[in-house]
Design brief:
Blueprint (H helix, E strand, L loop, with lengths): L2 E2 L2 H21 L6 E7 L3 H16 L3 E7 L5 H13 L5 E4 L9 H7 L11 H8 L8 H12 L8 E5 L6 H9 L6 E5 L6 H5 L4 E4 L17 E4 L3 E4 L7 E4 L4 H4 L5 E2 L7 H19 L2
Helix pairs in contact: 1-10, 2-10, 6-7, 6-10
């Protein structure tokens, strides 16, 4: 019988821990953590995501700000905004919501963010620090996956972890983190050009899937008793649902979960911990700023 890696329940628990720490710090007269977001344009998914971050911030007692800019904002104008946020002592951390409009070079913007306020963990400096196992802000989804495995007591030492997907946001950093001391996995990183993929995924004690293809992983690709982490999230039209769609992941859970010892649901698995990781990073930034 598969057991759920319930990200939603764990996120509520961690948010309560953060809220308690914030209450204690503010009772001592310290300033509450301040998380800001920069939103350029009117992309619906980005607006929803920023709103959920704002809501989560308020739930744990953070101050939250959203800086909104029109879709025709130039790169130079956005860099001016970044400079302002870097220099504002009241803001502990901020995120620039991606994707940005095509006239703006995303990497230029990301690397203009102060590494000390880069709570998304996307700057080259924080990525480099993470790879060197130095103190760093780790990007939210990989951090959330690691938190999920750790808090549920999943045995990782010496286990074979296969990561499917090599993006800079999820696959590559989580592969790096799980190979390091504290997790001590033997990691194989697969991608769209990997040959005999099913042969490799069947060897995984821990299978992390972030390939961005709906229900890509099927039962014949998973070994009995594996721990499964599905990072994918896709909206599929469904007239039987009130919303008009249903949400599925990168794994065909209807046939795969029965083979697994542990599995993340979609939704309610990795997603809730992504926002919690952002809150944890912001609290960490606040504690560095205010001692």
């Amino acid at each position: 019988m598969v057991q759920l890696l319930d990200g939603k329940a764990l996120a509520l628990q961690i948010k309560e821990e953060i809220a308690n720490e914030v209450r204690q710090r503010t009772a001592e007269g310290l300033r509450a953590p301040h998380l800001a977001a920069v939103l350029v344009g009117d992309d619906g998914a980005s607006q929803t995501y920023v709103a959920s971050k704002e809501k989560a911030s308020h739930e744990v007692g953070f101050t939250s700000s959203v800086y909104r800019y029109p879709a025709n904002t130039t790169e130079e104008q956005l860099l001016d905004a970044i400079k302002f946020l870097n220099e504002d002592p009241e803001i502990d951390g901020y995120i620039v919501q991606l994707p940005l409009p095509k006239q703006i070079n995303e990497q230029h913007i990301i690397d203009a963010i102060s590494p000390d306020k880069d709570v998304d963990g996307f700057t080259s400096i924080n990525v480099g620090r993470m790879i060197l196992s130095e103190d760093a802000f780790v990007s939210a989804t990989p951090m959330g996956i690691c938190t999920l495995l750790k808090r549920y007591g999943i045995e990782t030492q010496g286990k074979h972890c296969v990561v499917v997907g090599r993006s800079n946001i999820v696959g590559t950093p989580v592969a790096n983190l799980l190979s390091r001391k504290g997790f001590d996995c033997t990691v194989t990183l697969c991608h769209s050009k990997t040959q005999n993929l099913a042969e490799i995924t069947r060897q995984a004690d821990i299978l992390i899937v972030a390939i961005g293809k709906p229900e890509f992983i099927t039962a014949d690709m998973v070994k009995e008793g594996a721990v499964l982490v599905d990072v994918g999230i896709h909206r599929i039209p469904d007239d039987t649902k009130k919303s008009g769609y249903r949400i599925i992941g990168d794994v065909k859970h209807s046939e795969v979960d029965s083979k697994c010892s542990w599995s993340t649901p979609v939704p309610g698995g990795v997603g809730p911990l992504t926002i919690v990781s952002l809150l944890q990073n912001t609290l960490k930034a606040n504690k560095k700023n205010i001692r």
